[in-house]
């Protein structure tokens, strides 16, 4: 069979997995233990931390979607990042993108630095900055593209070359684009990470993380580590993620179409000083002229929800300064451009006209409120 289109792999995930019944939707196996015929006999399943049939379908699915040799389903995106970090040893250094997901920054700085890993940060649009930071201790490049919340894109082919030259792992967090828009392993990455809580599951109803990796040795190490530490995804949640992935292609189309319309609308709005939209996907950020507008704007949204997270069917607006990036020190935050006027919008799949009307109303109300408070 030819290599299937990503959209087809998404929709078919878990189908034809149960020969016995022909079930189209994958069965959920709760069994933790699996019977052995005798000594040395196994169906391939022994104990569910090591391997569970429902989780295995999702793991095979993400491997195929990302073009990897193996997949790993973890209890959260952070657990997936933890899994990848177990590849390293005290003294190892990782060079990462600067406006990285706040939770990842916290895990690096408050978590793994204590255990002897070091981290440096560079602007992904400036590969020379990365090159200058590489020492003999450097073992990996950790790239988020586009970055969060500033939507800066990295040219992965340049980072692939850099990783090859210096013998580094190229690790890419592909949460924002998903394999429908970008397949980092095709472009030279060794490891792809997802917070599946976002676009892959897509309905704001499950926390999950996925890893896909290239190369048998690397996959063996990751499998060993996941089984040892045990931050696996439950069978029910594995099923929910697969259920979500099935509609990812149509959802992503609508997210992108809406995001393009809304970016154009915001561009033309007098209260908005800047719109940051990379032209693909469903995520955009924008700056309002006046910090004082932010709170009244958020309070006057009636359709779009002011909440953390992204990638679900419902529109969510996030204020990075107090939410996703609250643990990044203010001077670091502002130096990288995550200032107090910046808002991040995960554009949902509602009617774009309704979303624009909601933004319009809330921006108008916010302007009124700031005018009144400055004149009083
Ligand atoms: C949300 C997110 C994570 C963390 O994933 P969880 O599922 O919330 O643990 C990691 N990276 C990016 C880019 C994210 O958006």
UniProtKB/TrEMBL annotation:
Residue positions where N6-(pyridoxal phosphate)lysine is found in the record: 198
GO biological process per UniProt: transsulfuration
A GO CC term attached to the entry: cytoplasm
Cofactor: pyridoxal 5'-phosphate
Gene3D superfamilies per the UniProt record, alphabetical: Aspartate Aminotransferase, domain 1 (3.90.1150.10), Type I PLP-dependent aspartate aminotransferase-like (Major domain) (3.40.640.10)
Short name of any one Pfam family annotated for the protein: Cys_Met_Meta_PP
Keywords: Pyridoxal phosphate
Transmembrane segments: none
Regions annotated as coiled coil: none
Source taxon at top rank: Bacteria
A GO term, aspect molecular function: carbon-sulfur lyase activity
Family the UniProt entry places it in: Belongs to the trans-sulfuration enzymes family.
Name of the protein in its database record: Cystathionine gamma-synthase
Species annotation: Salisediminibacterium halotolerans
């Amino acid at each position: 069979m030819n290599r299937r289109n990503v959209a087809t792999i998404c929709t078919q995930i878990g189908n034809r997995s149960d020969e016995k019944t022909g079930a189209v939707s994958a069965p959920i196996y709760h069994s933790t233990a699996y019977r052995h015929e005798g000594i040395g006999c196994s169906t391939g399943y022994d104990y569910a931390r090591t391997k569970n049939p429902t989780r295995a379908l999702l793991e095979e699915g993400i491997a195929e979607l990302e073009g990897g040799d193996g997949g790993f389903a973890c209890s959260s995106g952070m657990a997936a990042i933890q899994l990848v970090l177990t590849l390293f040893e005290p003294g190892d250094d990782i060079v990462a993108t600067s406006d990285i997901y706040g939770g990842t920054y916290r895990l690096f700085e408050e978590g793994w630095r204590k255990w002897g890993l070091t981290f440096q940060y560079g602007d992904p649009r400036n590969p020379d900055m990365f090159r200058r930071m590489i020492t003999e201790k450097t073992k990996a490049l950790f790239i988020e593209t586009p970055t969060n919340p500033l939507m800066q894109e990295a040219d992965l082919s340049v980072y692939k070359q850099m990783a090859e030259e210096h013998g580094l792992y190229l690790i890419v967090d592909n949460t924002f684009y998903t394999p429908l828009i970008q397949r980092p392993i095709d472009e030279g990455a060794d490891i792809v990470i997802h917070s599946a809580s976002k676009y892959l599951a897509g309905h704001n109803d499950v926390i999950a993380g996925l890893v896909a990796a290239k190369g048998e040795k690397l996959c063996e190490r990751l499998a060993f580590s996941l089984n040892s530490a045990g931050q696996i995804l439950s069978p029910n949640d594995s099923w929910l993620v697969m259920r979500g992935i099935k509609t990812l292609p149509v959802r992503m189309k609508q997210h992108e179409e809406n995001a393009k319309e809304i970016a154009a609308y915001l561009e033309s709005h007098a209260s908005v000083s800047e719109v940051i939209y990379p032209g693909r996907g469903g995520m955009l950020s924008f700056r309002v002229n006046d910090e004082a507008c932010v709170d009244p704007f958020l309070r006057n949204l009636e359709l779009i929800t002011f909440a953390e997270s992204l990638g679900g069917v419902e529109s969510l607006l996030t204020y990075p300064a107090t939410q996703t990036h609250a643990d990044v020190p203010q001077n670091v935050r502002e130096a990288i451009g995550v200032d107090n006027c910046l808002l991040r919008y995960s554009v949902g799949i509602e009617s774009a006209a309704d979303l624009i009307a909601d933004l319009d109303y809330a921006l108008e109300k916010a302007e009124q409120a700031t005018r009144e408070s400055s004149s009083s």
